[in-house]
Structures are given as structure tokens and as C-alpha cells.
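FAQ

Q: What does a record look like?
A: Structure on top, sequence underneath. For example:
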């Protein structure tokens, strides 16, 4: 089973289908594509800050180690080590990038593959969104110094808690 973290986009579109399209699923664990082509993976996910930092790490490493043949062998092994390390933290960096862009954590879901995880998530998420759209938000309480509602006449809109009316 693969575990995915689910993030909702910051702008709440009125259309539920648009909101569902913007939901991001981030796989937990090792990212194989990020291991094989880390710079392209960062470009694909529009993680510009991380792209610049990783590129600078590769450039500084090349300049620091040198250009002779033995140094190039060391550069290859160091690049391999950086790629492995990056692949382990790539999805965590992606969640941090989504949160920087205003996405909020909506939950975690697991499935055999991404399609199953999406199906499970949306089967639970869509009814909640429909219910939230149907039910109006609860009325806000009056502020002490500001807008205070007029007290209704006795018997009008009176709420009872247990056996006693609300003061």
C-alpha cells in the first residue's frame, strides 16, 4: 500500500469539479523519478527555489573537487549520493512547496496505486463538500463592544438548554 498526503488549493472555486481538479496528491517515501532526473522533476513540479539550490550544489561541488580524471570519478559518486538523498526528501520538499503556495493539508489516504487512493479520497471528500455547501455556517456570536443584537421578546426565538432557558 502506498500512502499519499492530500493538499487542497488555496482558492476555493465555487465549482466542485474545479476544486477537485486542483487537489494535489503527494506520495510518501522514495521518489524514483526524482532520483533519475532530479532537475527535470523539480521543473515539472514548479519548485523553482529548490531547483536553484540543487543546481548550485552541483556547480559548487564540481568547482570544489576539480577537473582531473580522479576528481571526476569523485564527482560522479558524490552526484549519485546527492541524487539518492534528494530522492528520499523530494516529496517532503514538494509538500513544503505546496504549503508555501497556500495549499492546506486535507488528509492522508492509502491505496495500491494513485488511482485507488484518489477514488478512496474523493468518495469521502465529495460528500463532505456537498454537505458544507448545503449547510450554512453557524451564526456568529455578538461582540462585547460592537454590534449587539436586540433581545427578542419572551417566547420568541428562545432556546432551551436542558430545563432552563438560555440567559
Amino acid at each position: 500500500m502506498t500512502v499519499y498526503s492530500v493538499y487542497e488549493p488555496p482558492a476555493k472555486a465555487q465549482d466542485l469539479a474545479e476544486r477537485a481538479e486542483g487537489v494535489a496528491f503527494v506520495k510518501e517515501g522514495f521518489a524514483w523519478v526524482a532520483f533519475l532526473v532530479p532537475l527535470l522533476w523539480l521543473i515539472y513540479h514548479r519548485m523553482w527555489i529548490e531547483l536553484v539550490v540543487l543546481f548550485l550544489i552541483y556547480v559548487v561541488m564540481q568547482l570544489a573537487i576539480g577537473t582531473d580524471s580522479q576528481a571526476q570519478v569523485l564527482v560522479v559518486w558524490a552526484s549519485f549520493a546527492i541524487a539518492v538523498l534528494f530522492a528520499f526528501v523530494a516529496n517532503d520538499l514538494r509538500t513544503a512547496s505546496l504549503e508555501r503556495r497556500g495549499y492546506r493539508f486535507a488528509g492522508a489516504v492509502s491505496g495500491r496505486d494513485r488511482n485507488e487512493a484518489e477514488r478512496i479520497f474523493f468518495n469521502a471528500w465529495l460528500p463532505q463538500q456537498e454537505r458544507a455547501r448545503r449547510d450554512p455556517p453557524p451564526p456568529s456570536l455578538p461582540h462585547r463592544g460592537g454590534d449587539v443584537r436586540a433581545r427578542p421578546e419572551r417566547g420568541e426565538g428562545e432556546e432551551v438548554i436542558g430545563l432552563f432557558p438560555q440567559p
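Q: Is there anything notable about this one?
A: The beta strands are 2-8, 24-27, 104-111, 160-161, 164-165.
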